[in-house]
Amino acid sequence: MSTSSNIKFHVKPGGSLTGSLRVPGDKSISHRSIMLGSLAEGVTEVTGFLEGEDSLATLNAFRRMGVEIAGPDAGKVVIHGVGKHGLKAPDAPLDLGNSGTSMRLLSGLLAGQGFEVTLSGDSSLSGRPMKRVTEPLAQIGAKIDTAEGGTAPLVIHANRSMQGMDYKLPMASAQVKSCVLLAGLYATGETCVTEPAPTRDHTERMLEGFGYAIRREGAQVCLTGGGKLSACNIDVPSDISSATFFMVGATIAEGSDVTLEHVGINPTRDGVINILRLMGAQIEVFNERTVGGEPVADIRVRSSRLKGIPIPEDQVPLAIDEFPAIFVAAACAEGETILTGAEELRVKESDRIQVMADGLNTLGIDAKATSDGIVIQGGTIQGGRVDSHGDHRIAMSFAMAALRATGDIHIDDCANVNTSFPGFTGLAGGAGLRISSSEDA
Ligand code: S3P
Question: Quick one: 91 and 229 in the same domain?
Fold first, then answer.
């Protein structure tokens, strides 16, 4: 889990990004590969698995529930599935560290087991809203206790009597959608989820890959409980959310030309490409292919002059994790960028609207937080010291901002970069970012 030491990033101004890079595996798909591989019958081999703290938290949780899992070894994981009813009670609470995806998906998957289990997390995760999963799970018949305020730890009671239901998501959230669908595997009859806007559909695709029938009709997705999952092999593409830092960095830094290899471009995740293109970025998506049911491509990005835009609200759920980096692009653009309809950003690993507005202000950029978004005037990024508040994506976004800064940028509280992007400083440094890190015990 996240370390108690404070890793700081120090980034010298200027430079450009060049070369061909492969960023680590997709976090969302890595989590799901462990979950479904564990519940499957047979042996699932995963390649390209993200060896970050978040997906390792999921892997360790399943080991603690009796699943034999070999690896990860250079991205290879071999899962000896125990079948849908083969998990065993862990001997202590499952600590999921910083990982919201682990906690929200596991709450659904574990709601229908024959044993009690407690899910806990670090201070960030323990402050994040869990009612969004415990409320629908209560409707399906699960018994879950939360801390006051509806937060973790979650105590999930043994329960073998859940009834399928039709749930209308109040917010666009793939974690909540997935939670309900995973609970639906253990419910009687049909479980349906209707979403207000499309969100990442990795759970649905992977369930199909494991041979589980899914019915999709418009905004609704349904499955019938009681079926079984059959092991399959999974090749995890590179994470478009991690590739984003290089897309933004190469766009804003003069003289850049970067190719990102084997990146997942699932249409429920490609908002960052659409938004950066609308701002004027030169992004070429080529060599498109399908790998294990997920669309994948190589992406070439060259430096471009950007202009501020009103960000189309329909792109918000499709780029939800990419906004900290998009805000850095907006700070380098000519004119005003306005984001609305993105209140979900306030309940991520940090309040990403406020933390980014504060950091951009420190670096001399006019950025105003609003209740559901931000208004950023493009300008000159100055050097300074900013705090990531332990949020991996904030830390990496401000690191890329140095490519256009007039002075050094120092970033505090960066240890959690390891939750999603182990090796970030090495890969970014090799591509041309003038980054170093230090550690206070
Ligand atoms: C994720 C869904 C998104 C995203 C998170 C990963 C997933 O969260 O922000 O990083 O893997 O399902 P929400 O469902 O809260 O939007």
Answer: yes
